[in-house]
Amino acid sequence: MKFLFICVHPDDLEFNCSNLISYLTSTDNSVEILSLTQGEFGISLDQWKGPRLAKIRKKESINAAAINGVSAENVYFGDIIDGFVKYNSEALGYVLNWLNKLQPDIIFAPEPYYTYYWHSDHINCGRLAYYIFRKKQNLLNHPLRSLYFYTTVKPTIWWPFKDSSHAVRALSFHRSQWWLLKKVRLFYPIEKFNLPYRRKIGSWKFAERYRRVYRKGKNPAINFILKVILGKLSRSHTVNPPRSHYTVPDASTPFGQKIAQLRSEN
Prior knowledge:
- The chain has helices spanning about 10-15, 20-25, 50-65, 90-100, 120-135, 165-170, 180-190, 200, 225-235, 255-265; strands spanning about 1-5, 30-35, 75, 105-110, 145-150, 155-160, 205-215.
- It has a single domain (about 1-265), classed as Rossmann fold (3-Layer(aba) Sandwich), CATH 3.40.50.10320.
- α3 runs antiparallel to α6 (about 165-170).
- The chain has 10 helices and 7 strands.
- The longest helix has 17 residues, at about 50-65.
- It has about 270 residues and is an alpha/beta fold.
- β2 (about 30-35), α3 (about 50-65) and β3 form a beta-alpha-beta unit.
């Protein structure tokens, strides 16, 4: 069985899926990772933004993936710019091309609807995965068997574990993100604490939560009010940096020109 874990930033999976990925790689399954961006804007210091930070974060991601048993040749990076993952036909074609190249059986992606993390990149990545799985399987060379969402608040399956040290160790490789991860590291055991689900999965201390998506029926209804809230939160600065964050010191470089173009399209 071939699993593909899709994320939008190089450190997303270590926080959300470390224990499941580690288990899958310890069995006879193939596991690959696709980060749609290279995390070019994952820092507040302008002089580090862009290709310089991307190079660092790619190396960090490969080292962290190795802790979970995923080899470097199975870690892929897209060239969508951090902060500019869109839900449109161009992005749809882009993800479809990756899926046709990698041909996974089962994919994991960030929850786009029932989530506690309303970053627009995450939301749009999940929406693309959902739309492809439900509506565009005919465009895939290798049909998808299943889609699961992480960062969900409406889980249907749980992956239990006893100790948080494994995931924290994997997270520690993302040193460029320590300004954020030193807070996330404290939040991790709280977010994964199993108390609400003990009746379902037993007395495990922690659990990763996933929502299975079905091609027909059985999916939670997404009502109009939730769509409105989703839209407002995804455009807020609660988890999304302000527009001013996506700037670079030298706008004359190819990367700077690309950012100027993307900003003008927003």
